[in-house]
Amino acid sequence: MSAILAVCGENFCAMASDGRMVEEPAVPGKPNILTEELPKLRKVNRNVCVGFAGDTLAAVQAVNALDEYNVQYLTFEKILKILSERMRQIQTLPLGVRFLVGGRGRKGGFQMATFSTDNDCQPDIRPAQPGAYLIEGACAHTEVGPLLEEHLRTGAENWRSLDDVAASMDACLKAIAARDETANDKVFRQLVY
User: Fold this and answer.
1) How many CB atoms lie within 10 A of CB 5?
2) What span, in angstroms and rounded, lies between the C-alpha atoms of 151 and 156?
3) Whole-angstrom Cα distance, residue 139 to residue 121?
4) Which residues, listed in sequence order, are joined to residue 160 by a DSSP beta bridge?
5) Which residue, 38, 96, 136, 167, is most buried by CB atoms nearer than 10 A?
6) What confidence tens digit (pLDDT) does each residue in 176-188 have?
7) What pTM was estimated for this model as a whole?
8) Shortest CA distance to 135 belongs to which of 2, 4, 8?
9) 25 preceded by cis ω (within 30°)?
10) What is the DSSP letter of 131?
11) Which pLDDT tens digit goes with each residue over 29-49?
12) Rounded Cα–Cα distance for residues 124 and 100 (Å)
C-alpha cells in the first residue's frame, strides 16, 4: 500500500507520496481503504526527507523512532542508521517496507539511500552527480520502474525548475494510482534544497 517517489539532484531532493492506506492483505478489486489522506513521507529536518512504501504501520514505527532524538541535529547518515536498525527490530507484513532517504550528507553534498526489508535493511547510498538526477520510486503492489522511466527519467532533460520536477512526479503518481487500487492520486510533497 502506498507509492513514494524521490528525485535528488546536486542542489535538491524532492519526494512525493500518495495518500491511500489500505488494510492488508489487499483484496484485488475491493481493497478496504482505511484513509485517503496519509502522507508516506516526512521532512525530518532542513537537510533530510524520508519516504516509504509497503507496511505503513511498521514504517511509521521506524520513522517515529527519530522522535527519540533532537531531530534538528540528526545527519543524513545518522537518520539512515536509526531507520535501518529500527526496521530490523520490527515485524512486518509479508509485503515488507521500502524506504527512500534523501538530502544533504555530513559533507554537504546531496545523496539518496534506499533500503528495504527484502535486503535486511542494508542501505544503498548514492551521491548526486552534477548534471544528473537520482530517481527512485516504490509501490507495494505495482512495479514502478516503467512508470519512472516514462514520467521521470525520459523528461528529466527538460526540467528547468522544481515546478517541472513536481509536475513529472505528480504525473507518475497519477499513473501509479490508475494501475494500482492501493494507491490514490492525492499528492503530498517534501523538499530539501
Assistant:
1) 31
2) 9
3) 17
4) none
5) 136
6) 999 999 999 999 9
7) 0.94
8) 8
9) yes
10) T
11) 889 999 999 999 999 999 999
12) 10
